[in-house]
């Protein structure tokens, strides 16, 4: 049997109910009998659902005015901001997020983040003042054992002092319908956004781990979930941390065309979303966008926000949050780039560079 058979059977059950409760059949059925019949139908429904699963609308659809990512927001309500127009000096209070977390998002004094911020004593290997001669009688040189020069011990590598906990979210999951390219001309090749998002996040995690930056992998179980929006947010919000938290959701974009069709090649590039009114989010978005454009050389679609049809993960998280849209997977030319290992690495490296800048300077 298939899931289609299951829904066919359900439709037949409801047709029978309609016949039974509609005259002349309904005249022979009592109200209690109808209720009993409904319970029987529900029993069948639950049984088949346990076998094949239920077709459900994503939970976020029930939350009026919220969307999953940038491709779900109509063009007419999007506000675009150029990243070079954003004040990134800060720090900002960002009341819209701090209130939800009870404060604590204002950066502490700047920490050393590697060699660039380390204060060291003046070097002793440069020019030296003249040495005053010492009478030879003070201490004759030891001529019995040749002097041995010990190699200088290597200076310890500066340890990164973490400033934030980075909640890294690879958007979408394997169980979610859509969010994939049309099938290529060979009849089998196809781009899946969930796989791309996860690959980029894993590359980011690897780099942050090597650099000592604290992170939280929000959805490692991406193969078992779909959109998973409320759960993503809950995991990030509930994560215990002594450090202020930051939320980064990694995505690829889609042009406004029907599923299964290619968008015009002119629809391409990178954009970064933030919650409208969140100063820290806007600053984060500006820094990420700058690094992403520099790292890929792709079309700059700038920063995006909206007061209508807001993005769920940006407004429901209790911390500064952004969502990066990296290229268009229904642009036939650009999706081929998104499938290349070296391009994915550039995108991941750009995210890491933005994180390190914020680790150093704060927001």
What this model shows, in words?
There is one protein chain. With 363 residues, the chain is α/β, with parallel strands linked by helices. The chain has 2 domains: 53 residues; 246 residues, 3-Layer(aba) Sandwich (Aminopeptidase). Helix content is 35%, strand content 12%. The protein has 9 helices and 9 strands. The strands form 2 sheets. It has a 7-stranded mixed β-sheet with strand order 2-7-6-9-5-3-4. Strand 3, helix 4 and strand 4 form a beta-alpha-beta unit. Helix 1 runs antiparallel to helix 2, helix 4 packs across helix 9 and helix 6 runs antiparallel to helix 9. The protein is globular. The N terminus is likely disordered.
Number of helices: 9
What is the CATH topology of the largest domain? Answer: Aminopeptidase
Q: Per the principal axes of the C-alpha atoms, what is the gross shape?
A: globular
> What gyration radius follows from the Cα positions, in whole Å?
30 Å
The assigned CATH architecture of the largest domain is 3-Layer(aba) Sandwich
* Strand element count: 9
Main β-sheet, spatial strand arrangement:
2-7-6-9-5-3-4
What share of residues are in beta strands? 5-15%
Query: Pairing-aware structural class of the strands and helices?
Result: alpha/beta
* Proportion of helical residues: 25-40%
Please trace the helix and strand order, writing H or E for each element: HHEEHEHEHEEHEEHEHH
Supply the CATH superfamily name of the largest domain: Zn-dependent exopeptidases
Characterize the biggest β-sheet.
7 strands, mixed
Q: Look at the structure and give the mean pLDDT.
A: 77
State the distance separating the first and last CA atoms: 56 Å
Number of domains: 2
Return the CATH class of the largest domain: Alpha Beta
Low-confidence stretches: 1-35, 45-62, 98-145
């Amino acid at each position: 049997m298939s899931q289609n058979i299951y829904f066919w059977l359900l439709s037949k059950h409801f047709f029978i109910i309609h016949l039974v409760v509609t005259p002349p059949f309904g005249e022979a059925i009592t109200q209690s009998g109808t209720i009993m019949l409904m319970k029987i139908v529900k029993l069948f429904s639950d049984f088949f659902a346990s076998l094949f699963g239920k077709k459900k609308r994503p939970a976020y659809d029930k939350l009026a005015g919220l969307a999953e990512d940038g491709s779900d927001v109509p063009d007419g309500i999007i506000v675009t901001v150029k990243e070079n127009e954003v004040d990134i000096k800060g720090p900002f209070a960002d009341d819209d997020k701090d209130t939800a977390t009870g404060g604590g998002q204002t950066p502490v004094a700047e920490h050393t983040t590697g060699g660039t911020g380390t204060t060291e004593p003046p070097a002793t290997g440069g020019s030296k003042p003249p040495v005053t001669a010492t009478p030879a009688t003070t201490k004759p040189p030891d001529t019995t054992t040749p002097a041995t020069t010990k190699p200088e011990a290597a200076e310890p590598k500066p340890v990164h002092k973490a400033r934030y906990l980075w909640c890294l979210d690879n958007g979408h999951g394997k169980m979610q319908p859509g969010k994939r390219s049309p099938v290529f001309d060979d009849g089998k090749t196809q781009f899946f956004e969930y796989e791309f998002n996860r690959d980029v996040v894993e590359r980011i995690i690897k780099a942050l781990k090597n650099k000592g930056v604290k992170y939280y992998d929000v959805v490692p179980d991406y193969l078992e979930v779909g959109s998973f929006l409320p759960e993503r947010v809950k995991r990030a919000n509930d994560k215990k941390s002594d450090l202020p938290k930051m939320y980064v959701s990694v995505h690829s974009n889609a042009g406004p065309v029907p599923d299964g069709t290619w968008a015009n090649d002119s629809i391409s590039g990178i954009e970064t979303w933030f919650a409208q009114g969140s100063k820290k989010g806007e600053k984060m978005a500006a820094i990420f966008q700058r690094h992403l454009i520099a790292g890929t050389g792709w079309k700059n679609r700038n920063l995006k926000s909206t007061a209508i049809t807001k993005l769920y993960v940006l407004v429901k998280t209790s911390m500064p949050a952004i969502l990066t849209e990296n290229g268009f997977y229904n642009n036939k030319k650009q999706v081929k780039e998104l499938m290349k290992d070296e391009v994915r690495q550039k995108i991941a490296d750009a995210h890491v560079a933005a994180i390190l800048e914020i680790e150093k300077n704060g927001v």
